[in-house]
What does this fold into?
Amino acid sequence: MSASPLVHAPVRADMAVGAPVRVGLRGPANDVPNFQSSPVELVLRSCPDNGRRAPCRRRAAEENKRKAGLRLDRPEEALKTLKSGERAIVPGDTRRSTLVQRVTSHDPEEVMPPPKEGKALSREQIELLVRWVGEGAPIKNHWSFIPPERPPLPEVAGKNWPRNGIDNFVLERLEKGGLQPAPEADKATLIRRASLDLTGLPPTINEVDSFLADNSPEAYEKLVDRLLDSEHYGERLASNWLDLARYADTAGYHFDGVRFMWLWRDWVIDAFNRNKPYDTFTIEQLAGDLLPAPTREQRLATGFVRNNMTNGEGGADPDEYINKYVVDRVNTLGAVWLGITVGCAECHDHKFDPLLTKEFYQLYAFFHNVPEKGLDRIRTDNPPPRLPVASPEQAMRFVEADFRLRDAEKTLQDRINALGETQEKWERETNAKPPPKPTDEGLLARFTFDDTPGTSTNSPAPQQAGPKIKVAPQADDGAGPKFVRDERPEFVEGRIGKALKFDGKSHIDAGPLVAFERTNAFSCGAWVKVQSDGAILSKIEKKPGYRGFDLFANDGRFEVHLVHQFPDDALKIKTSDKFSPNEWQHVLMTYDGSGKGAGLKLFIGGRAREVEIEKDKLEGSITNNEPLRIGSRAGEGSFTGLIDDARFYDHALSAEEVRLLVFEAMMPIVAKSGGKRTQEERDDLRRFYKDNYAVDYLRSEAALAKARKVKEDLIKEIPTSMIMEEMDPPRETFQLIRGDYRNKGDKLAANTPAFLPAIRKATVENKDGRVRLANRGREAAETSVHGFVRDPSASAVAAAGGSPPSTGESQESAPSSGAPDSSPARATRATELPAQFNRLDLAGWLVSPQHPLTARVTVNRYWAMFFGAGLVKTINDFGAQGEWPSHPELLDWLACQFRDGGAGSVGPWDVKGLVRLIVTSATYRQSAAVTAGKLEKDPYNRLLSRGPRLQLEAEFIRDHALAVSGLLNPKVGGPSVKPYQPPGIWDGTDAKYEQDHGEALYRRGLYVFWRRSAHYPPFATFDAPNREVCTFLRQRTQTPLQSLVLMNDPAFVESARALAERVSREEPADLTRRLTRAFRHTLGRVPQADEIATLRRVHEEQLAAFRSDAAAAEKLLAVGESKPAESIDKIELAAMTAVANVLLNLNETITK
It folds into this structure.
């Protein structure tokens, strides 16, 4: 028999979606699937890479190896005619089905799976496959892609055990496995477990005693309700959501600059505390800005989308990072709501799930329309779009500041309107009594530029009376300043006579005409008309040090630099306000020789201006061997524009001296009659008058500046949060070939994957503060095809007729029932909607009743929060490679309960109702103690034969220590804080860690500053993620480093000392009672006799040690900023601190 073309087709064992799609649900304990599972999957799972996730790139490479063109991971491929004319599967015809021939062959060259590469099928599996093909190869969609239907509660033998519907499903599974549930945990354990699970904080001794004393049947339910009503409940649930949302206080990547998103974090806490329905919670975070007339809170909610990392590194490609941001948002959407590894389809079609690359970029289009920059270059603020969120007190102050600003603006305008009259009076007085000429005292050099090129300009300074300052072409070899340019200088009309024109390529080299030291007072300035940035006057070296001084025009502001070594040993100031380009302005700087920024002043138009001091430390020399330059500085910074009357003085001019310099240039204009002045002269004179002599105007201008500053300072004080907005016009989206942002394929519009229900335009209902999207009822399932051919027999008939589908799309037939059956063909939309979909439509699609994933994924994640693992263990993967549910009917029952509402819920998508349902179940209330039999049959508690026992998450371990010590600051919400941290953690970053003090040190871990590139060490040690990407489940490890943190980290040492103080005050007279009290604070239960004996021994040993080493006791008690009580003996307190440290280090302490 000749080799079939199938010999060359690598069978893909780990791609179980499409043809090998499961119809029903089975537990992982069943080795042989029932007939509801596609037997093709048996072939796939028995072939190479069975059960493993091969790298995407290797999978992509396999595309080129399939010589026969066969794939069994997709139905349209498995059913099509191959190059040889044969077909792997012909529904209803086992003889013509090459797959059947191959799996039943005894020829090692023919049999599938290949003996050398795969695992042989058993006889029973082969029979099942043959029977399945013979009966028409009926295939339905993967279980998680079918909307859940609420199953009936199963009957169980132990009818007295269930407390709610959860328990019926759990007990049914236990009874089938020959197991019984564990007894209920004792009450002390229950209150501690519930308190830590629902608030992240341990119960107080009083709370424990109150619960123990309550013998009513509903005592536990009352406890749960009290915890759910606690404001700390929202903090507990927010912690997990922040992991999902990639929340951090920095932007990530190389610079990892600070950002401020704590307002969004507060929104999340509040949403959980107010029990915002999960559908509204989803809609507002994904598309709150697109709701009709969105509230501030709804816009703030969209910060969820903006939590991705952003880059500002020089040299990076903005388009590359825009792409990274959007990809992250799509991956986060997939993990949080879909439970699918959508990122596997970024470069090529998903190799396990029916998600095409095209569909990845259609999802991408929803998030590709934000007006953001790929490189934001903002390291200390939020990049736009951002939303300021004022507190009520700030809002009131803002209204008042705005009123005062408007009043000041009106007053100033009145003064401006009166300027004409007052200026005329001033002009008459000035002409009658002209001001004195500006002094020449201390004038070292002056460049008037009034002579023709090649002639000299005499300096009137006494010490310079003999020498002449010469402006000459470069070819002139005479002594003195030279004009550096190939052609001759160009003189134009200036402010005083002629001015010299600089074109960005020319400058004056004046040689060693002036030299100043750091301790010398001096002044220099000129009339300028700026066209582009550059040095006006300079005597400064090139990089790297820039030693010297200069007067510089930069980005609309004038700057002064005095430098020994920039930036560490230098002064730098710049004007706060921008100047107007292409206008004559007199700019002059003065320096008093102090080496301080306050000793520098900048005058414009004869008036000292407000400046910003950017560098304020000058200790070294500023002298150098560079020449004095006009219009440039060494090797760079060439000026473009006009310069006139440049002057250098050997002292700091007074304000009056500077004003007279400008007045000299104004006098010819004052002397002219108004009708003979040019418009430029009129403007210059008006500016000079109002800036120097219009007293009422200047007073009003100062008042306006003050009012404006008050408002601006308040605006800076008001925190902002990044939000979503839509671009108009929208940004185009293309399929990126192999994920390369530079290689664009087809242009795409936003849409959802075809294997899921079709998206529809959203209609919004906003009632009673809850957002609903109308027309999303179950009937919508009839208008979209989320499965395939509904009658599998139709496929078989078509195939038997010899006309199998070659395109992978089958014709729809009428449904035989309401169940969403599906065929092997890829989904086809019932109608192509021309509407442009946006994020609001996407959010509505996610929470629509017919969506198969959102409710399942969400309840599974909450289940994992309490039990450590989800009913589907692979929380982020409900696709073909994900694990099957341990309790499939329970998963669907919970999903329907959550989605539709039910007993105990206040309505659909009730998060508190879901949480209450879980934690009041008998399943949750079981003891965590394990027997040998259960350990053998249920080693990982997947059957839920006992209660949860899990190590606390990082933040709650720290919270626990602070709470039991009495140090905890319970304030809810607000900015992030910086607690104790070892030195050097932030070394290598561009920021300095500035530890907080006071009550901020003792806030909950939720509020600890989260730097992505330099994670808070105690949290990192206890497996908290850096949140660079969406984290759907934290790992739980136990390492020696964790014990070292608990023993030595200042927060835990200080907490141990505070706990020791606390119990010393509560039980000062009796050591046993004191130890018992410390034990109860820490563990919530009464210690046993042997435990007290152990603690007494530790206390005695430590007491003896500290008595012999009082310095060690002092050192221990000095840890932390809180001060130990003077009333307690220090040696005794140190010994008790050591005991408290042991208690905080117990495994039981950090375990719920």
